[in-house]
Amino acid sequence: MAAVHMPQSEPASPPIIATYRLQCDPGQADAVARFIAFEQTVELPERLVTDATLLREIVGEVRDLRADGPGHAIARIAFNAELASGQLSQLLNLLYGNVSMASGIRLVDVDLPDTLLQRFNGPRHGIDGVRALLGVYDRPLLATAVKPRGLSDETLAHLVGRFALGGGDIVKDDQNLVAPDFEGFKRRVDACAKAVNAANAQTGRQCLYFPHLAAPDEELDDYAGFVLELGLHGVLVCPMVIGLDRMRYLNERYGLVCMAHPAMSGVYTQSRDHGIAHDVLLGTLFRLAGADISVFPAPGGRFPYSAEECAGLASALTRPLGQLAPAWPCPAGGMRFESLPQLEQDYGVDAVLLIGGSLLGHAPDLADGTRAYQTQIRAAFPERLVEPQTSWATSCEFEPSTGEGVHTLLSFLQDFRWQHRSDLRYKNEEDDFNAVRRVELIGRHGEQADFDLRYFEVEPGGYTSLEKHLHTHVILVARGQGVLVTDELRADLKPMDVAYVRPLEVHQLRNESEQPFGFFCIVDRERDRPMRP
After folding, report:
1. 416-465 pLDDT per residue, tens
2. Which is nearest to 369 in space by CA: 529, 174, 142?
3. What global pTM score does this model have?
């Protein structure tokens, strides 16, 4: 079968190259490939498109067409990368929008240029970040799911705690654990969070608990915010249920580890002659949307995934993809204790082994079953343990020195100091800030207040940490000149100016003058820990 070309000048930046497998007679392959090129871009019959600019800059270009066995062909089509508009949803629309309603067209590969990849953050944590949170290296991670729906919150929390006590790494909600309302979600997640925290305190290690983030779209931010408030590190998301771009938004806004579940993905992947290949959807596209861990059925389990398909999927999650971090392959689905050697051989050290029912039923006590599985894993992969990475502590977490107590009057002293209050360190010395001192005035000394009143002073050339958090800040400038830098503005500050920092707004205060810059800060007494941008 001869290659087909529609002559065009090369666009200013490299194009997207999409590869399709066509189910058609050999004589129809040319027409089907050209149909895709026009339908996915101008949505007009080829005979109606005569404008040279449209043909050059908008219409796809069939770059290669070859036979692929009886009744099939492979077509490689180049699309101007600007047609994706830098948006994940539009990229999906461009690659497989209208042609998804045709027959016998399967998207089997996509090559994305760096100019487009740079528009996406991808996994916020990836393989290295999750390992740092756990402090576990040189072996696969062991995960399980708490189930089934219908158990009480206390019973589910008990399972979470026993898995953590047994040395498990990640315990997630089953994807069917969906509360009827926000209050139900809070009760379950709070109980499970307390259980995993208690177990972690006992073991001295860190097991991560990921609640299932499932709610009406307009409430998802409240649910994600609550997860952050509890100090949890990640969530389970079903991107094909809530929307792939919705997962991207939640990932970028909240910075939680994102474990992506493949529920509903089978309508795209399971036909061999239509849809989207497993490695493209659950690998490349999930990774673009920010999945740190992508769950997929392993061969030999309950679902008909082949070893070749799973190997391709694992490769798509871990191979170089612009600046995006590699993500964890997470084989799952009906695996058993005796499956471990094959899983270890197939996926190696950088994999999350998600084992549900067989682990839950391996021993009367889940802690004992978890130890048995971990022992088997460690026999093949001797682990290396380091101190788990803690949440990023800033001045929001450091307690003041003891003994200063509650006082009706804090008399103002020279050089912006107060009677009964001493200077405190701003945050950990290894973190990125310079020349900042802190005074806790009201709230941390036993006062009956729902807020903290604090004073910060930044020396010339100094700056606070660049961070974001759910709680809001109110800033009242007391002395000198400073600069507030946020997502949206750079504002010069002078004495008596008042500034408001919104939830999850990236912000930093700087002193670019030659005199000290001081300001009061009012924050909620109970608040979440700051995050790096």
Report:
1. 999 999 998 887 766 789 999 999 999 988 888 889 999 999 999 999 99
2. 142
3. 0.84
**E strand residue ranges, 60-133:** 61-67, 72-79, 105-111
Residues annotated catalytic, as ranges? 147, 261
- The Cβ of residue 502 has, within 10 Å, a number of other Cβ atoms equal to 12
CB-count exposure of residue 198 (10 Å: 0-12, 13-18, 19+): middle
Query: CA–CA separation, 370 vs 165, rounded Å?
Result: 9
Bridge-based pairing of strands 328-332 and 293-297 is: parallel
C-alpha to C-alpha distance for 456 and 416, rounded to whole angstroms: 10
Selection from 132, 137, 203, 142 nearest residue 172 by Cα: 142
Inter-CA distances, 449 with 290, 473, 499, 524, Å: 39, 16, 22, 9
Q: Are strands 208-210 and 170-173 parallel, antiparallel or unpaired?
A: parallel
- Domains of the chain from N-terminus onward: 16-117 (3.30.70.150), 126-385 (3.20.20.110), 412-524 (2.60.120.10)
Question: What is the per-residue pLDDT across 65-82, written as a single tens digit (0 to 9) for each?
Answer: 999 999 999 999 999 999
Tell me how many helices (H) and strands (E) the chain has.
17, 25
SS3 sequence of 226-260 = HHHHCCCCEEEECHHHHCHHHHHHHHHHHCCEEEE
Residue 292: both structure tokens together = 């740190």
